[in-house]
Amino acid sequence: MTNDATEARVLDAVRQRRELVNAAIDEELPLAEPERLYEASRYILEAGGKRLRPTVVLLAGESIADVDPGSVDYRSFPTVSGSTVDLLRAAVSIEVIQSFTLIHDDIMDEDDLRRGVPAVHEAYDTSTAILAGDTLYSTAFEMMADTDADPANGLEAMRMLASTCTKICEGQALDVAFESRGEILPDEYLEMIELKTAVLYGAAAATPAILLGADDEVVDALYRYGIDSGSAFQIQDDVLDLTVPSEELGKQRGSDLVEDKETLITLHARQQGVDVDELVDAEIPTDVTDAEIESAVSKLRDVGSITYAREKAEELTERSKRHLEVLPDNEARRTLAELADYLITRGY
Amino acid sequence: MTNDATEARVLDAVRQRRELVNAAIDEELPLAEPERLYEASRYILEAGGKRLRPTVVLLAGESIADVDPGSVDYRSFPTVSGSTVDLLRAAVSIEVIQSFTLIHDDIMDEDDLRRGVPAVHEAYDTSTAILAGDTLYSTAFEMMADTDADPANGLEAMRMLASTCTKICEGQALDVAFESRGEILPDEYLEMIELKTAVLYGAAAATPAILLGADDEVVDALYRYGIDSGSAFQIQDDVLDLTVPSEELGKQRGSDLVEDKETLITLHARQQGVDVDELVDAEIPTDVTDAEIESAVSKLRDVGSITYAREKAEELTERSKRHLEVLPDNEARRTLAELADYLITRGY
């Protein structure tokens, strides 16, 4: 668990890298023609985001290269063989993939708010949102192809990016299918979030190892760090959806409940005999009241479902940190461990 | 121009490769879990398609390697350096990208029929169609990453695939924008179809050159062969939309007119003073009568707009064939030239 001092340190590490990542997004994804397409493509990226995944890319690179965080230019980052790669571009690539999935997911889930602003399909229209997502998809691959890595490593990074995207699609398909399915086991839910959410953290952590030419053992361990901490991140997201006020969430609190999204919390509650389907009457997030959400959350809390989810997230986080032992013992590695803690202690 | 004998030869060359490509699609894109996602992803691929782009991949490879068409296993195809690559997998990758664009375009264009069957968003639903397209997108990259090419060549093929997809998105965005824009110049239209349609033919022709390790001059010439013949293909598609009966088209004849899609034909007619917007009253393809389409086409024919488009397609085709002169003079090269002719003489 983090205390205030370590949380401040993590947030500072994320903030420092976020500024560089934001500047790099502007460079890597310029407002090209057709302008409306690129405006729509950049819209969610410009609406904010903590840049956690790019931070993982950069920190993992720093730990592998055993350099002091922030001491080396991410655009010409030293590899094991002595050449350099553009690690910042790889970090942006991962963030751009994340944005593509948000845009398409919001269409599929009919979520009209994202990061406190209208989703792309609301701010523009569904066609533009589909196409903006498709554009981000390929530009992310273009970026990952141009990191100046040794070709074998560059190709392997591309392969990982592609298989990661396939898994994300599979996870989203499972998530959608769960909404209209009978009993779902917690393990099925965990498999779904691993595919839908955690594999991109896995790719964020493993890609720098691939690009820098680290041993397979390091690639695998970092991938598993990302999978475990990314799964914990998603469970925390589910908890936050229920416990954080709407204005901080940037969307309606409890919208998962309104939209009948199953989470580890609702699955546990069902096992405790709670009639989850009757917890809220509203059928769309704009129709629900805070009182209704508060009452539903109380019931989930009373049967221990929120505690259950938190404990599962903590267990995954502890496991994620053990994977880091393969890295040199340095500040970047410690920050990666603290970041894993932060993913499940963050309040928004 | 083709005569009946050369057309029969081209169709035979396409048919032979289509069988191999179809078998390879089954192998490369198995019905994995979640099954409904993969069913939807394979749906358009299984609904037919001539496999013209994969045929271009395979023929270009055979011409570069200077082997008799069909004499060498496409799965272990000889490169310039003596190693082998899986050219069939690269061919499938290009076809899978084509399928992804069809699925997403049909959502955006609200086209409900494709290859004579309901479009994916009709046969399933819009969310599934978005996700099926996204899945094909990444699996195409996974396939292209696994051709066993020299890593530098493999990475370059991935780079071309990514930039091709970005251009296709840009072209689709321009196409959509044209529907609600004022005067469009023929050159703007040609730029749009180059992006939307021709670049994938360019990638189909250039990718084997990249994977086999051919000289840059060969890569460039084949790319331009694909761009020119692919542009001509799209112009012919626009002509066919107006001139071929619905049952042969697999969708309503004249649907471009109904949907206010600008083509080289309508742009030319506007320049001749035709009030294109008043040619048909119906606003959706299911509402239009054949008589209404026939009358509209007569007017377009009378002012020479269909002849104009045909001549432009012929000019592009002649130029495309000249790019092939960089290849060894062999049967595969002759078939590529005949295929370019076929693309603008085909009746469906």
UniProtKB/TrEMBL annotation, chains A, B:
<dbReference type="InterPro" id="IPR000092">
    <property type="entry name" value="Polyprenyl_synt"/>
</dbReference>
<comment type="similarity">
    <text>Belongs to the FPP/GGPP synthase family.</text>
</comment>
<dbReference type="InterPro" id="IPR008949">
    <property type="entry name" value="Isoprenoid_synthase_dom_sf"/>
</dbReference>
<dbReference type="GO" id="GO:0004659">
    <property type="term" value="F:prenyltransferase activity"/>
</dbReference>
<dbReference type="Pfam" id="PF00348">
    <property type="entry name" value="polyprenyl_synt"/>
</dbReference>
<dbReference type="GO" id="GO:0046872">
    <property type="term" value="F:metal ion binding"/>
</dbReference>
<keyword id="KW-0460">Magnesium</keyword>
<keyword id="KW-0808">Transferase</keyword>
<protein>
    <submittedName>
        <fullName>Farnesyl-diphosphate synthase /geranylgeranyl-diphosphate synthase</fullName>
    </submittedName>
</protein>
<dbReference type="InterPro" id="IPR033749">
    <property type="entry name" value="Polyprenyl_synt_CS"/>
</dbReference>
<dbReference type="GO" id="GO:0008299">
    <property type="term" value="P:isoprenoid biosynthetic process"/>
</dbReference>
<keyword id="KW-0479">Metal-binding</keyword>
